[in-house]
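Entry type: protein chain
Record version: 2
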Amino acid sequence: MLSSFERSRELGSWARYKSKFERSTEWASHGEYSLKATMPPGEYPGVGMVWFQHDWREYSRLQLDLMNPGDTAFPVTVKIFDEYHTRTGFQHNDRFGRDYTLEPGANVAVDIDLADVESAPLSRKMNLKWIWVIEVFSHDLQQTRVLHVDHLRLVK
């Protein structure tokens, strides 16, 4: 389990990107709590997990649950990169990213094959021993959106 938000100290593993977040009981896919991110209008608001188990070589999948409590759909991207990516100028073609559309009231079970993550960089293999950041963000928001994130886990 990377993060379930059942303990308040888990928030210390997360970073805000032009947004704010809190633990919430408004929705949870597992347990009683989720991370509630409030993302204002703007280019790339979201959240990122920056403190976690970095060596993913023993695992085959990353899974997490997302929910849009609002009344209109909006796009989100799940982005994953390794430590080396921080030395490439954060080039778009040197990381993993997958886009989703969160429909109103929809729960989305994200299931990412780590073979896809490893092969995502254009000119190299991502180093699954040094995964650095997991981000969930939106883009070009015209109005404030709320996103719930829960039950991040690595699966063997």
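Comment: The CA atoms of residues 73 and 103 lie 4 Å apart.
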